[in-house]
Amino acid sequence: MLNRQGRPTTAGASSEAGHATFTGNRALMQEEPLLFESGRYDVTGVDIEEPAPFRSRLGQHARKGEIGLPGLSEPETMRHFVRLSQKNYGIDTGLFPLGSCTMKHNARLNEKMARLPGFSDIHPLQPVSTVQGALALMQELARYLTTLTGMAAVAMSPKAGAHGELCGMMAIKAAIEAKGEGSTRNVVLVPESAHGTNPATAALIGFVVREVPARADGTVHVDDVKALLGPDVAAIMLTNPNTCGIFEPQIVEIAAAMHAAGAYFYCDGANYNAIVGKAKPGDLGVDAMHINLHKTFSTPHGGGGPGSGPVVLSERLAPYAPVPFVTFTGKSLGLVEHERRIGRRDLAFGRMTAFHGQMGMYVRALSYMLSHGADGMKQASEDAVLNANYIRAGLCDLMSLPYPDHPAMHEALFDDAWLKDTGITTLDFAKAMIDEGYHPMTMYFPLVVHGAMLVEPTESESKASLDLFIATLRDLAMAATDGDKERFTGAPYHAPRRRLDETRAARNPILKWTPPQPLAEAAE
Amino acid sequence: MRYLPLSDTDRGEMLAKIGVSNVDELFSDVPADKLLTAPLDLPFAKSELAVERILGGLAARNVPSSSVPFFIGGGAYKHHVPATVDHLIQRSEFLTSYTPYQPEIAQGTLQYLFEFQTQVAALTGMDVANASMYDGSTGTGEAVLMAHRVTKRRKAILSGGLHPQYADVVRTLSHMASDQVLTMKADVSGTEDILAKIDNETSCVVVQSPDFFGNLRDLAPIAEKCHAHGALLIAVVTEVISLGAITPPGHMGADIVVGEGQSIGNALNFGGPYVGLFAAKAKYTRQMPGRLCGETVDADGKRGFVLTLSTREQHIRRDKATSNICTNSGLCCLAFTIHMTLLGQTGLTRLANVNHANAVKLATLMASVPGVKVMNETFFNEFTVKLTKPAAEVVEKLAAKGILAGVPVSRLMPDAGLDDLLVIANTEINTDEDRAALLAGLKSVL
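Structure tokens for the assembled complex are given below, as produced in the milestone run.
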């Protein structure tokens, strides 16, 4: 049996029989209760002086009863969260080859810059005369983004990649409505291999999704797109380089076909890290593309956010960009916050979010760009692509490639054909990587590849790091094909937790802590 | 370049191993005429010192809130954040981790998300909360879409006390999704008759309390009328510290509560990143947007946490998903969780009390200034005053004197004819000296 801290209540109850400890801890690997189990309702870790007596203006609205939030003192809080952090794998821990996510080095200079009081301690509704530096930073970042992509304009405010997709598709919808085709053009083409956010975004604003089949070589063929085109098609949402890690060879022809049919080309920029400084989306015929600052420009992923997803727009879509945006009015910078006050640009489709977007991420991204420079950003993309191809070359004799005919861009994609008849799945293989000290690659995505393993090393890895990674995966691959099934199907053995029961979590969702029964009843 | 580990020797060896003679051979799928040959028209790499000089120069052209008497709120609030918070969120294992898709090596993130969800549910008085949204405004947009899914209706009613930019976000999304929105007239006094607008076509009513003008609103009668007509009540809270002092929406019958969590743990950051709170009644769990973290056990029977109910989400459901959301506000929600843990209910109640006390003090002082009228019956830490001159003009003049006085309503609602209204926030950071400076400043410009 187990108590609530997760430690065995009798020695030998865990799989590490013979090595069990009294606490359930194992040296640096510390079990940590929920803060609700260690906290007390009358404890606080913040000293706040009680105000002098005063007459309340809360009226009938004063809160009654306990809130139900225990507190911890400062040392307890520190220990609680430090221990939690030690159960996490980050880029700073080791290679994090999560395909499609671009887990590159997060320079601490960027953190330092974002915390300058001149950026972190300014309010979004301060008079613009008191935030000229912030507006200048937004304008400078916009210049970098439009120059790198060769696009006419950028909408800065979207809060993450999917929010940027939504912004781009809204701009397309606004442009279509402006042409009087709002009721007829309602279909969006999305390849089978696309990120799930693409069809979800299109559907959210009323588009009907039509799937474009993938060819056997992992690319989208212009003839397949043309076959689906008609007066009802509003746009295509295409990732480039695509989710199979390949640069779409016919992208220019696809863009031309869309334009000829009166439709638009939305490019999912999740994989932009492969081509920064090598090719401009604007030259390829893209009308809108979101840029994940948290991927390509190294703002930290932070365990799932915050992101930032500015959208670059072509000349055709630029007038429809949402508010707010920065303007230059003679001597100083201004901020346009209302559609009706735009004058010439009164086509703006609305507003994506309160305030002006993810300023903290803008500072970090610009810090990255200034550090790398035009030369360094190009080198970073080349190194990212080189690293991915090096891994592919080092493993392709043992692990199968679904698309051997195209060079990889910044991701190396394998399928599970080589695991056939071993009884080991992609999931098992990934979990065995955890025991070897690696974060697994992206699994089962893209959906068009069976048992997909999508490896993205990024430019942040040294050759020695890649060599060890390749050697490790070769050892695992040989063990898998040699029938050492246990090493995989039971993995991970050495992580803070063994494999977790996700079915149980979904069947009977426990989404918050609830106070236990009185102690007498809980005793076992 | 300091961030790139490969040397030219490494690159040469690696190209040889791959079997190509130069890196551009790996870009052979890029149409030859589209491959860039000339460098981009941007500066080349810079040292750390050089970058600090450039960005430091830009930062120096802004006026930080802590350098002046500061009274701006309007959906983002200046509070003191304990040093512990910023130290902990910069730990590598939190900062440089990804969405916890591999739960065995992401229990740190998952456990704090579970703790965050529990805290948000308790604060708002709701059954369940998700693992955060981008911010309060986008969360409000998602809440309206969720209400449409639940009720299978498509008309939202927005209170005239809702933050104007939140209303803009909802209207933009609704227009694009061809849904209907009825926006009430700006409601300075908090007495609008929203009940009269609720009918059997209404999907949801969106009401903010404390509202944009600072008034505290009784949500119970609105909830009752909503439920009688099969509609949902969405309550919005932009100043989450108020929940340490006032009745939470969950105790007044709200079906969905959306909050901006910035006030706890997070800096002003010129508007982002922030952290959206999203809570609902248990029966609507499976219609919620965003990530949810749930408790389970591992193969050894030990308690652990995983992302769950992902069959709602875009990576599984694609065009049938409840939302297109992929990212939450991870690190900001960690900051919230840590600060909330430090506070506990004891600290939160005290902090809320200090905020209210300071605001009452200022409102009392304001009443003595000729040409200033406090408009609110009730408020928490923010209230609206009517001036004898346009508020935007007054704010500009005070800014020139080094006082950031508040939000002119006209900045957010330029066409509402409310140019003489100023919304003023007063938190625990404001001192008696700050208040005296604001008063003296107002007297001199009015």
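The radius of gyration of chain B is 25 Å. The mean pLDDT of chain B is 96. Further analysis is deferred to the final report.
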